Amino acid sequence: MKEFTINQNDAGQRLDKFITKTVKKLPLTLVYKYLRLKRIKVNGKRADAATRLNEGDTVQMYINDEFFEEKENENAFLKVKPMLDVVYEDENILLVYKKKGLIVHSDDKEDFNTLINHIKAYLYHKGEFDPEKENSFTPALCNRIDKNTEGLVLAAKNAESLRILNEKIKKREIKKSYVCIAHGLFSKKSGTFKNFLLKNERENRVYVYERPVPGAKESITKYQVIREKEDLSLVEVDLVTGRTHQIRAQFANAGHPLLGDAKYGTAEINKPFGDKSQALCAYKIEFKFETEGEILSYLNNKCFKLENPAIFQRFSDIYKN
Q1: pTM to 2 decimals?
Q2: pLDDT tens string 24-54
Q3: How many Å apart are CA 172 and CA 253, to the nearest integer?
Q4: Most CB atoms within 10 A, among 102, 181, 232, 288?
């Protein structure tokens, strides 16, 4: 039997959610079976899956030890020497600049050198995160950007902040703006792309449709051309929705693929510039709360941005010679 004491980061969760986060090897079917058999209890008493946990509660689990074995690389961040470019930090959130080439989460090619591992290591060395003292929570990213996209990434230091930030993003009360370099000159210097994106998991790319199709999600992107140089445009982009590869796919669909984008552009148009990664930067995050911000109310109307993102210099250097 193992017993867990509910701490501040665990409180407020449903019991079944707490169990799946805490005992990751335990299949969901067994979670519900063990609850029925009273092999999982709260404060020594029978509880159902929907029970809300309070700080100070105890959860007893009478299940096999094999389910508690630590997953390989679960604490991989302990092997990472933290290297972060912190833009803003307080007791609840962390806003960092991610360089091009760094992935945000582990994949089949990289387990250790990830943005989230650098964040966990940073907070661990500061004494703000200790996995030994947490049951179900770990610092988490609230937005993601591609490996070859640079820019701002927002992370939550505690469960309450993570819940609020995810809710605000879902309600579109956190505005994310990008700058990109696109091929071609725009006939309309500002406008909105509104269509539907369908993701192909096997190919790791999305396809654009002008009308709804099964599985596709509506995607809305606003843009404003801020500079032009021969046949390239520097464009500010505001995401109304946040879909996978949204900017890259929609700009390519409009006839303006991003400079250096091998997936949605072509080698032929990129070759003269020698760019091998998309010219895209997440440069600004604004907090525009329309509903109660709770412990994060102090962030309302705050704006954080990169004052001189590298992409501006990249655009200025093109055609210099």
Answers
A1: 0.86
A2: 889 999 999 999 999 999 999 999 999 999 9
A3: 24
A4: 181
